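Before the break, one more example. Copy the sequence into your notebook; we will annotate it together after we see the structure.
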Amino acid sequence: FKWTQRRQNMPLLLFHFWSFILKAFSSLHASFLNFLVCQFRLELEDSTEDILRPRDPLDIGSHEDDVVGEKLSQPIVHCIFSARFDEADGPCIEWKYPDSFDVEGLEFSALASGLHNKSGPDIIYFKKGVMYGVACYRRHLKNGRGSRDAVMRSVGVITEHYGFLQKHAATLIRIAEEETTSQLSEKAKEEMMDYWRQNQIDTLDSSHNPNPTLSWSLPPDSFSDLFAALGENVFTLWKAALLRKRILFVLDPPLKQQCMFVYATAFLARHQIKQLARKVPQSNPLFYVNVMQMRALMDVREYIACTTERIFENKTHLFDVVVTSNLDDKSQIIVQVVDKKVAQATAVTAGDIMKYQYLIKKFQAQDQNMLVSFFQDMNNRLLSGLWNRRTHDAPVAPAELPNFGLHGTDIRFFTALLDVVSLDIGVERIWCGCCS
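Here is what the structure looks like once it is written out:
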């Protein structure tokens, strides 16, 4: 009877046994899945933390990628020179040191077009090959006579990094101020050679400082001056810089202000997202360019430059964005975009206006460090958001753009930026009258 009863209960026992096995397996499976999810979240958090962590300037392997305020090895002065406008031969290099340095074409950068009408001193930044230069200009009238009978001279240096050019300006301006005659004095030559020697790494006192470094930063008021001159249109330059477009300022002297505009615009695209450093590299500031460089500019895919030569305005194949002044009102700055699609992607949107009003209201746009930090933080948020989004399958909708620090009206800029960074991220297409 007992055996018969057990046989009758066997199916029930087997049912309970397999139910126990299945529940145990399900529990282990769920625990394993939870473990994988936790690990993924930890890896994702670590990745995001790594993206937002300030990077080492050597990550990219180029001094052009360094950010403001970082310590760099003090660059040497490769050449010091004096350029003068000769009545018979035009601009010429009257003296240089050392003699072996190639200065071909340097006179056209140091004696910029339009400076002959300027009585006060001026400062010109420019690029020569892979190096950068600064020249300080001064015009001296002969016996108080007209501007045609004047000594026009620029004294300059060539070095490796544009972040340190301003540190040479004071000495160069003083030499240019003191040299009032047609011929460069022997005293000036000696002083310039001494200055060259003082700025050679080999002659620095390594016993006290084996690795001499100094911190570089934006010239005073350069960023705030750009913001004040362009107003909300500064966001067009910001977008164009991130999209790696060719930006050209065509304005009248003084050159110093134009060069500072170039300097500041180069910082609009600064970021610390090393994973996208090659896709969105730091800007390429050329500073002052002249007609002799037109052919070379045709081969440059991305740059920020300035010029005083109005003929550039007609050469629309040389730039994507041009910043110029109203011929009737020189104080009115105009930003024009050549290509229609680029114009749509870089147009000032409702979101840009909100940011501009926020900056004006809270900071009066006078705190240069605040402005630099604002744009760099905005770039960090935008690019880190793109990097994290690359693993998602769902396309980005305009309503999600605030997650990237953008406004819904910035959808065209966002789409154009995706082409630049080359990430496999889709964008939800919204058909409407404003963005069709």
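The mean pLDDT is 81. The two ends are 84 Å apart (CA to CA). Try to locate both features in your own notes.
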